[in-house]
Design goal:
Elements: E1 56-64, E2 69-76, E3 82-84, E4 96-101, E5 107-112, E6 117-123, E7 130-137, E8 142-147, E9 153-158, E10 163-169, E11 176-183, E12 189-192, E13 198-203, E14 206-212, E15 219-221, E16 227-228, E17 233-238, E18 244-249, E19 254-260, E20 267-274, E21 279-284, E22 290-295, E23 300-306, E24 313-315, E25 321-322
Antiparallel strand pairs: 1-2, 2-3, 4-5, 5-6, 6-7, 8-9, 9-10, 10-11, 12-13, 13-14, 14-15, 14-16, 17-18, 18-19, 19-20, 21-22, 22-23, 23-24, 23-25
C-alpha cells in the first residue's frame, strides 16, 4: 500500500470472494468482513484478549467459497502476521458466503448459499478453533449476515426471495431462533448501526432502514425508507460515532454520504463524491476521520477526510492510491501496539 496512507495505518485484513464486497468498519458487522474478536476491527468487542497467549492479538476467519470451508488464523500481536491454527480449515459448509463474529467474540456466523442456511460456530477463546453449533434455515440465496452490537440478534439478507430474516441468539450456545421474515427489495447486505437501534439494508436501488425492537429483534421499516443512493449500490458502512453513513455505487462510480437522524435513524443526503471505477467496498477508520474505498476496475483505493460536522468527504492529497488487481474488500484497524 502506498506509503502516503500515513494518515492512518491502513490494514487490508481480508479479501473475500463473495457477492458482497463490504467491510465491517463502523457498524455492527456487515456481511462481508471476517471479524477479529478483540475490538480492533470489524465487529469484535469481546474480552477474548485476556484469555489468549501473550503473542496472540486475536483471530481472523475467512470463508473459502471455492473449497467449501473456513480458514482460521491467530494474529501475531507484534507483527500482525497470520498463523493458521490447529484444525483449520474447518470443513462441512457447502458454498459459504460472508462470515461475521458477534460482539462477545464467542460465536461466528456464516451464510451458506448451497445449503440455504446460516451456520453458527462457537469460538474457542484460547485457540480460536471453531466448533459447529448447527445450521439454521434461511430464505433462498442468503447473501450476508450481521449481528447487532448487543449480541442478542442476527440478521440474514436473501436476495433471491426479497427477505431479511431475523433471529434471536442463545447467549449460552450461539444457536439461532427465527424471529420473523421482513420484506426488502433484492437485499444485498445488511449493517446494524453502533447503537443497535437501526438496521440498514442495501437493496437494488438504495438503502432500506429498519428500527430494531430491542426485546424481540423484529424489524419495522422507518418513515422515508428506502433512501436513494447512486446506481447499483454495493456496500454500506456507518462511521464509529453513528452520525454518518456511506454507500459505494458501483455503476455511477461514486460514494453517497448521509447524515443519520439520531432519533429515527433516517438518512439525509449530504452529497455524492467521486470514486474510482467500480467502487465495491467502503470503510471508515476507527477515529472517524477518514474513509477508504476499494475501486475494483481502476485497481486503486480512494482516501477521503471526513468533515466531522457535516460528514462531507474530501479526497486527501495523493488519492487514489495504487492497489493490486481487482481490489474487492477493505477495512482498517487501529495501530497495532
Amino acid at each position: 500500500m502506498n506509503s502516503q496512507l500515513g494518515l492512518v495505518r491502513l490494514s487490508i485484513l481480508f479479501v473475500l470472494a463473495t457477492l458482497v464486497a463490504c467491510s465491517g468498519g463502523g457498524g455492527g458487522g456487515d456481511g462481508a468482513s471476517a471479524a477479529v474478536p478483540n475490538g480492533a476491527g470489524g465487529g469484535g468487542g469481546g474480552s477474548v484478549l485476556a484469555q489468549l497467549p501473550n503473542n496472540v492479538a486475536g483471530f481472523a476467519y475467512v470463508a473459502n467459497r471455492g473449497s467449501h470451508n473456513l480458514s482460521a488464523y491467530a494474529i501475531n500481536a507484534t507483527t500482525g502476521a497470520l498463523s493458521e491454527i490447529a484444525g483449520s480449515p474447518f470443513s462441512g459448509l457447502f458454498d459459504p458466503g460472508p462470515i461475521t463474529v458477534g460482539p462477545t467474540g464467542k460465536f461466528a456466523y456464516v451464510v451458506s448459499n448451497g445449503l440455504i442456511s446460516v451456520a453458527a460456530y462457537t469460538i474457542n477463546a484460547t485457540t480460536g478453533a471453531l466448533t459447529s453449533v448447527g445450521e439454521f434455515a434461511a430464505a433462498r440465496n442468503p447473501s450476508s449476515v450481521a449481528v447487532d452490537p448487543s449480541g442478542k440478534f442476527a440478521y440474514v439478507t436473501s436476495a433471491g426471495t426479497d427477505i431479511v430474516s431475523a433471529y434471536s441468539i442463545n447467549a449460552t450456545t450461539g444457536a439461532l431462533t427465527l424471529v420473523g421474515e421482513f420484506a426488502a427489495n433484492a437485499p444485498i447486505g445488511i449493517t446494524v448501526d453502533p447503537s443497535g437501534k437501526v438496521a440498514y439494508v442495501i437493496i437494488s436501488d438504495g438503502v432500506s432502514a429498519y428500527s430494531i425492537d430491542a426485546s424481540t429483534g423484529a424489524l419495522s421499516e422507518i418513515a422515508g425508507s428506502p433512501f436513494v443512493a447512486g446506481t447499483n449500490p454495493r456496500c454500506f458502512t456507518v462511521d464509529p460515532s453513528g452520525k454518518f453513513a456511506y454507500v459505494t455505487n458501483q455503476t455511477s462510480n461514486d460514494v453517497s454520504a448521509y447524515a443519520i437522524n439520531a432519533t429515527s435513524g433516517a438518512l439525509s443526503s449530504v452529497g455524492a463524491f467521486a470514486a474510482g471505477t467500480l467502487p465495491l467496498s467502503v470503510t471508515v477508520d476507527p477515529s472517524g476521520k477518514f474513509a477508504y474505498v476499494a475501486n475494483a476496475q481502476s485497481a486503486s483505493v480512494s482516501a477521503y477526510s471526513i468533515n466531522i460536522t457535516t460528514g462531507v468527504l474530501s479526497e486527501v492529497p495523493g488519492s487514489p492510491f495504487d492497489a493490486g488487481a481487482g481490489p474487492f474488500s477493505i477495512t482498517t484497524t487501529r495501530k497495532i501496539q
